[in-house]
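Record 1 of the preview.
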Amino acid sequence: MGRIYSNYEEHELESVKKRAEELGFSASSFQKYCVMLYLGDRTNTVPIADLQEEMLKGLEEMEIGKTFIVSALHPDKWASFSRSTKMQLAKYLAAYVDKHSDKFIVAEKVKGTINKYKKVM
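->
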């Protein structure tokens, strides 16, 4: 796997880190996510059941108190997913959080935007 390094002014770096944290990404994962969205890379061919299983594993491993959005559970692949796959995963996560309200809550919900979730237990 190749790497690309980027240099940022201090204020730019702080903005990237802040936004990444708000969305549940590491700064490097957020950077890749943004670049791949910009490029429009839609090459994912992984079955939805495998992606859901991967999502659940990520939720189990997540530290308590962490705030996240659905794309943070697939940081290296999200940009390559079709809109349909993204919607399926977002709906799956929403249903999972609703069913497991003892472990997760909706931290922020604004109609027409991405829901932010938080692991509470």
